[in-house]
Amino acid sequence: MKMRSHTKLKHILIIGVAFVELFLFSQYKAHDAVIHFFLHSLAGVNAALLIFITLSLQKRPSRNFIFWAFTLHQYAMLPDYLYQAGSPHQPWMNVFLGHVFLDNLSYHEWILSGLAVFLGTVYLSLTNKAFHNTPKEETT
Ligand SMILES: [Zn+2]
Asked: What does pTM read for this prediction?
């Protein structure tokens, strides 16, 4: 019973995150800035992957990846919310996962996508048993 309500809560969380992300995507699209939506999403995902890699190296694996990726995505996009509120981008806003730096970097989406694939592979290799060299039972 407890397990079921936990799963239900997780599904509600995922649906909630999906709705918020879709809404934000539509806002960025309306401002012709879809690339920035993905750019800062990738920054959030990469930061979440770094946290999860660190946790699994410390043998403290966490399971709330969507929560962390979502939260860090929001954190990375804060300067854009401030921009909407009338505050232009300033160098100090790089504390938001390098927001201003990434906005001005060439090939930023390719660099961040490559990094996400790399970090994702590292994380999977640390956590997924399929990547581990499990010796088969000796029959001889
Ligand atoms: Zn921005």
From this structure: 0.78
